[in-house]
Design goal:
Elements: E1 7-12, H1 16-25, E2 31-36, E3 50-53, H2 55-64, H3 66-74, E4 77-79, E5 81-86, E6 91-96, E7 105-109, H4 110-118, E8 125-126, E9 129-137, E10 140-147, E11 153-156, E12 161-164, H5 171-177, E13 184-196, E14 207-211, E15 214-221, E16 225-233, H6 247-254, H7 263-274, E17 280-286, E18 297-299, H8 314-335, H9 342-363, H10 374-380, H11 384-395
Parallel strand pairs: 1-2, 1-12, 2-8, 5-14, 12-18
Antiparallel strand pairs: 3-7, 4-7, 5-6, 9-10, 10-11, 13-16, 13-17, 14-15, 15-16
Helix pairs in contact: 1-4, 1-8, 2-3, 2-8, 6-7, 8-9
The chain binds flavin-adenine dinucleotide.
């Protein structure tokens, strides 16, 4: 490392992980920091959806990146409970998150979350800048990016640490893994839609309603909107047929044998049918966990661990990743170490925890699979074994390096 040269860090993607990492490093005068983001600041591709972020992310952010935690909490609603019922109204589980977590999670709209994460780092992000190529030249990572407004291409070479926050379809992940990875499809269609709550809306905190293995999930988000994620089994590996996207098909999925849905399920069935044309469609899929297989290149968030969203841990783990990455970069700079060493150290601190989360998320998907029994499956989720794992998920967050026993500050 040349002592006179500032270490060059390039973050690709100002999504959840990339924005938080950029915020945690912004303003330092001992590094050269660039964040490349494909979309323009006005792009709201995800505006039509919402998400819940787990208590573990908020606990972790409060400890590592308190300003970001404060901004998120101020602009969201608390996630405090998890209720599971059948669409006929029979309640199977009513979990107070305070019994398995040290604090609440949050509920928010995607557009709101991206806007408030990107606002404080505006000066550090090149928007409309799309990574088109990455690789290694003379041992160091490089990237090529295209300005989507002008069409011009630029190259950044001699990168000391390249951070891939470019999401599930990450080009950098593909480079690190040596090619595209075939995802594992679980055989479940998951769709999402956001709509105004309207008068007398019976939906509030996070809850789910099952009819067989067809499931509705919904909660209220700020701005008086309801976020609803519906699901139903499909043959593994198959696409989502057009007739499955029609209001009549969707309505029948959730109508209980008794014929009369509960007020909440009835409200959601009607809303899903009315907003069918605005639905975002997806299939549950996951891939392998990989953080720092290449020195000087670090995968974070979905590019490191594409997982099923069943426990709301995708963005949540992206937050935990960001906290550890910022912690490790600060430590490397304080110790005068090359930041290229961060990728290996993040892998060592994160891989086991994230494998636990990926496996637990898949395990919790049991009630959504074809032929599942949601009653027996949900009752299992009220038992001590599942509760203990939830407590581990929500409480055992990564601590700052300086506070870990036996570790140098
Ligand atoms: C149906 C569904 C529901 C979900 N619900 C939840 C939930 O409730 N709670 C939860 O915690 N998680 C949820 N997730 C998961 C969550 O969406 C992701 O895990 C999370 O967004 C990952 O964050 P990230 O920072 O890795 O990537 P992202 O937030 O996806 O950000 C990636 C960024 O990289 C940019 N980018 C991509 N390619 C390039 C390029 N070539 N050049 C420059 N920039 C680029 C993108 O524009 C984007 O800004 C859900 C996912 C799905 C599919």
């Amino acid at each position: 490392m040349n002592a006179a040269k500032k270490q060059r860090i390039v973050v690709v993607g100002a999504g959840i992980a990339g924005s938080l990492i950029t915020a945690g490093l912004a303003g330092r005068d001992d590094i050269e920091l660039t964040c490349l983001e494909r979309v323009s600041p006005l792009d709201h591709a995800e505006a039509g959806t919402g998400l819940n972020i787990g208590p573990n992310a908020m606990k972790c952010l409060k400890l590592h990146l308190p300003a970001s935690a404060e901004a998120i909490i101020a602009n969201s609603l608390p996630w405090q409970s998890w209720q599971v019922s059948l669409t006929d109204g029979r309640v199977l589980m009513d979990l107070d998150l305070a019994t398995v977590a040290d604090n609440a999670g949050i509920r928010i709209r995607w557009a709101e979350l991206y806007a408030l994460l990107r606002e404080p780092i505006r000066e550090h992000v090149r928007f409309s800048a799309e990574l088109t190529q990455c690789g290694r030249a003379d041992g160091s990572p490089f990237v090529v990016w295209r300005d989507r407004a002008s069409g011009t291409e630029s190259r950044i070479e001699d990168i000391d640490l390249l951070i891939a926050g470019d999401g599930r379809y990450s080009q950098i992940r593909e480079f690190v893994l040596g090619g595209p990875e075939t995802p594992h499809f679980l055989g479940v269609c998951l769709y999402r839609v956001l709509f105004p709550a309207g008068p007398d809306c019976p939906i509030d905190d996070y809850a789910q309603w099952f009819n067989g293995s067809n499931r509705l999930l919904a909660f209220r988000v700020p701005g008086d909107f309801i976020y609803c994620a519906g699901s139903f089994p499909i043959p593994p590996g198959s696409g989502i047929a057009e007739d499955m996207k029609q209001p009549a098909f969707l309505g029948e999925l959730y109508r209980p044998a008794s014929g009369t849905p509960s007020p909440q399920a009835g409200y959601l069935i009607e809303a899903v049918q009315r907003h069918a044309e605005r639905i975002h469609w997806a299939r549950l899929q996951e891939g392998s966990v990989a953080y720092g297989r290449e020195p000087g290149i670090l995968l974070v968030g979905d590019s490191a661990h594409p997982m099923v969203p069943t426990l709301g841990q995708g963005a949540t783990q992206a937050c935990e990743d960001a906290c550890v990455v910022v912690d490790e970069i600060r430590a490397a700079l304080a110790e005068g170490r090359p930041v290229a060493t961060v990728s290996e150290r993040v892998e060592a601190r994160r891989a086991d925890r994230v494998r636990f989360v990926v496996d637990f998320s898949r395990e919790a998907t049991d009630t959504m699979l074809a032929g599942a029994d949601p009653v027996a499956g949900t009752i299992r989720k009220t038992e001590p074994a599942f509760r203990q794992k939830l407590a581990q998920l929500y409480r055992d967050i990564p601590l700052p390096a300086s506070s870990r026993v036996g570790e140098p500050a």
